[in-house]
Amino acid sequence: MSSTEKIRIDGLSHTYYTARGETAVLRDLSLAVAEGEFCSLVGPSGCGKSTLLGLIAGLTPVQDGRVLVNGAPVHGPTREIGLLLQRDHLFEWRTVLKNVKLGLEIQGQRSAESRGRAHQLLTTYGLAGFEQHYPDQLSGGMRQRVALIRTLATDPDVLLLDEPFAALDYQTKLVLEREVQGIIRANGKTALLVTHDIEEAISMSDRVVVLTGRPASVKQVYDIALTLPAERTPLGARNAPEFRSYCNAIWDSLDIYLRDV
Ligand code: ADP
Ligand code: MG
What we know:
By secondary structure, this protein is α/β, with parallel strands linked by helices. The protein is about 35% helix and about 25% strand. It contains eight helices and ten strands. It has helices spanning about 50-55, 95-105, 110-125, 140-155, 170-185, 200-205, 235-240, 245-255, and strands at about 5-20, 20-35, 40, 65-70, 70-75, 80-85, 160, 190-195, 205-210, 220-225. Strands 6-7-8-3-9-10 form a six-stranded mixed β-sheet, sandwiched between helices. A hairpin with a 2-residue loop joins strand 4 and strand 5. The termini are far apart. Magnesium ion binds near residues 49, 50 and 162.
């Protein structure tokens, strides 16, 4: 792994102000993600994970602290960052191909090259022949794959993934985890994945960061070292001898009791 820092968060705090009062969501959170690293964030529901991704993506203005991507403060959405969410946010009235081209169009990329890239990604990821289909003709897994391709079409170097597999059934989830991890690693992308699934976090990541309850800060960081065959896959990782002990340690660290759920 390169030691170049792709994302750096220093002393980040965030509070929402609404008619019903103030909610302190992040408090003095610091975290760095290296170039090419796959890092996961786990934490109690409502602790501020999506807020953190929104701040890194430039969708939410920083109130207090610093967020740097590629060494520069984030001031708004940029090409460098791609976002994949739990709900795929596909437009039902646009075909698969037109959904994939949307991100490119927003960025003013209408060149033959970017159109070619959209076609090529659809072919590479098993959606050749579905270009003219509409989202409601696809399975949940295929829809999420289209959303991923739309994100990748603009060639971001950082991917922020906010529970992208949470709505999928177990088999589809394992397949997509493998695909997404393969794509991200093969292309040298940097990834920050939010998930409530501890096994998913361990099986996909170089590092798992456990957050405290709200207001969230970093509670504990686990470097994941698994004994694996040459090609790392999320399913293979689940069979590594060290896997269970990471699960238990992270579960303990999350410190979730019945009173919290
Ligand atoms: P997580 O993704 O970890 O579940 P979120 O970042 O979505 O947590 O939310 C953290 C807290 O902030 C929650 O209590 C949520 O209700 C509150 N919250 C999220 N977005 C807003 C908003 N736009 N305005 C006010 N409160 C919000
Ligand atoms: Mg969330």
